[in-house]
Amino acid sequence: MKETIGVLGAGTMGAGIAQVAAQSGHIVVLVDLNSDQLDRAKINLEKTLIKLIEKQKIDADEKTSIENRIQYSSEINDFSNCDLIIEAIVEDLSIKHKVFESMEKVISESCILASNTSSLSIASIGSVLKRPNRVIGIHFFNPAPLMPLVEVIPAVQTSSETLKSSVELIKSWGKTVVVCKDTPGFIVNRVARPFYGEALRIYEEGIADFATIDWAMTHFGGFKMGPFTLMDYIGNDVNYAVTESVFQAFYYDPRFKPSFTQKRHREAGFLGRKSGRGYYDYSEGSVIPSPTEDEDLGKQIFNRILVMLINEAIDAVFMNVASKEDIDLAMTKGVNYPKGLLLWADQLGLKNVLGDLERLFLEYGEDRYRPNPLLKRMVKENEIFFN
Ligand code: NAI
Prior knowledge:
single chain, 387 residues, alpha/beta, N-(1-d-carboxylethyl)-l-norvaline Dehydrogenase, domain 2, 2 domains, 17 helices, 8 strands, 51% helix, binds 1,4-dihydronicotinamide adenine dinucleotide
C-alpha cells in the first residue's frame, strides 16, 4: 500500500482529494504556496467532518484522526517521504512543468507523480521528468469526496507498474476507476461536450429558450439538471474554457466548436450562480422562467442532443479512448447521467440513432453531425454494444 500521499494545491480539488486520502487512512502532506488557502482548506475540512458526524457517518475520534493525518505545508520539500503525489494547482502547462521538475528533485525514486489536470496532456506534463515512467493522470470530479468516478490516464511514458499501483490505490479509496487514453477531455469532458454545445446551438437557432431546453432534458431524458442550469452551476468561464481547449486540442474539429452565446455570457460576466446571473437570473426576488411544455418540441430537442451525445460516446469507443463499459460507467458515475450512452443507443436502436444523425447531417450539411463510422458499421452488421 502507498502509505504517504502528497497533494499539491489546496484549492477546490486539492482540498477534496486530501480529505479522501486522509479518510482512507493515509498520512497526507497538503502543500500550497498560499498559506491563506491552507488555512481555508483546514477550516473547510473541519466543517465537512462536523457535518459527517451529524450524519453519523463518522464519530468524533475518527474526525480527530482524519485531521491529525493531514500535514499542511508551503514547502515542496515536505513531499520527501511521499509514495504518490497528486498535483491539483492552476491549469497552466508551464507552471505544471515547473512544479513537476521541482517535485522530482525532492522525492524518492519510486514515488509516483500524478496530475489532476482536466485538459492538459499527461505526456507533456511528464516530459520534464528524469523518470517519466512515473507520471500519470488521476482525474477526480468535483466535489472529490462525493463524486465516485476517477479517470486514470497513463501517458505514453507511463510504466505498467505506475498504472497498476495507481489504479489499485484509487480503488482502495472506494472510487470507481476508469482507465482512458491520454486524449483531450479524457472520457467525460470529451463525451459530454454536445450536452452543452448542442443545447446552445438549438437555442441559437431560435428553436427554444433556455428553460424549454432544460425541461426537455430533465423531463424526457431524466437528466438531473438541464444543460443551462448545469452550465450556470459549473460557471460559464470554466465550462467555456474546457470547450475551447477541447476544440483546439482536436485541431478545430467542428464537432467541438464553442458557442458565441456562451462566450458572450462569459464576457458579460454572466458566469452563473457564482456571479448571481448566468443564463438565468439568481438575484433576490427573481424567478426562473417557465418552459414551453410542448411535448413534440421537447422530444425533438431531447432526441437531437441525445443522438449527438451517443455519437460522441461511439467515437470514444471507435478511437479506443476506453472500453465501452468504462465509457458508460464514466458518464453515469462522473456526471450522473441517468443511463450509459451506449446502453441508451442499444435501447433506442442503433439504426434509429444513425437515421437521426443522417437527417441532421443532410439538413445542415455540417461536419458536426457526421455519423461515426463505427455506428454505420454496426448498423450494417446488425450489431449492438451490450447483449
Ligand atoms: P483552485 O484554483 O481552486 O486551486 C488551485 C490551488 O493551487 C490554489 O490554492 C493555489 O494557491 C495553488 N497553487 C497555484 N500554484 C501553485 C504552486 N506553484 N505551488 C503550490 N500551490 C499552487 O483550482 P482547482 O479548481 O482545484 O483546480 C486544480 C486542478 O484540478 C486544475 O488542473 C484543474 O483543471 C483540475 N480540475 C478541476 C476541477 C474543478 O471542477 N474545479 C475538476 C477536475 C479537475
